[in-house]
Amino acid sequence: MSAAKDITLNDGNMLPSIGFGTFPQDGNDSEMTTLRALEYGYRLLDTALSYGNESAVGRAIAGSEVPREEIIVTTKLPGRYQGYKEAKRGLYESLENLQLEYVDLYIIHWPLPRLNKYTESWRMLAELKQEGLIRSIGVSNFTSEHIERLVRETGILPTVNQIELHPYFAQQEQRDFHTRHGIVTESWSPLGRGGKLLKEPAITAIANSHNVSPAQVILRWHIQLGAVPIPKSADALRQQQNLEIFGFALDETQMKTITSLEQGRIWCQDPNVYEEF
Ligand code: A2P
Predict the structure, then answer these.
(1) Percentage of the chain with pLDDT > 90?
(2) Judging by DSSP bridges, how do beta strands 14-15 and 7-8 pair with one another?
(3) Does the annotation count 51 as an active-site position?
(4) What is the pTM of this model?
């Protein structure tokens, strides 16, 4: 059985193997759920300026007994702050909301290729890292072409690419690209946002065979793919359950069965055209 092991990023910093997603759903109280997540043992928190909950996440960090230096805080640069000078303003706004002096991982939220500003944003992120305001820089929803352009024009590789990844959309090609370049894959909506995926007969059968829940099977699948899942839950028991995925392992057949549920992207958010600001 594999224990939870931190992952070393290509800049030498460490990343926990599972994180807590704070994107608020149904008006859930981010402060309370984040505080509880820290108490249960999550050490990677994932927020974004555009989620509108950075202040709540910051209050949870301040109120937690977990020392700040043990928490990997991730937040993201939204489209409205893309650009060289603008990116700095975006980070400052996040730091102000979070009431932190630095973030551990700062990510460009969407490439927005029509805007054509992600390489200048990236240059600024690299400078802010030099200044010590960011520990690691990464991207989200970037295709291989977007990453290749970043590297061609700036020489700087992202540490992570956070992408839509769940059994309906296993992203084999994109993950292979990340592996070849030493980029860590983070999975957003790792449980496919709950619902139908958790009721898939193939998944419930595997869950029964290990005496675990369907969500645990899916999160374990992410771990064995080498991806870092960031599940969200507002429910105390499910928050705990989602961390308990290191006491069993899926065999090769079970991994393949889960991967064969492939349906493609389920929220029509193709990074080449999707825009949010
Ligand atoms: P809830 O907040 O009521 O627990 P994703 O991380 O893929 O976006 O999925 C989040 C959704 O999955 C939420 O609706 C959440 O509901 C649900 N969820 C999270 N963990 C579990 C779990 N262990 N079992 C069942 N549903 C879960």
Answers:
(1) 95
(2) antiparallel
(3) yes
(4) 0.97
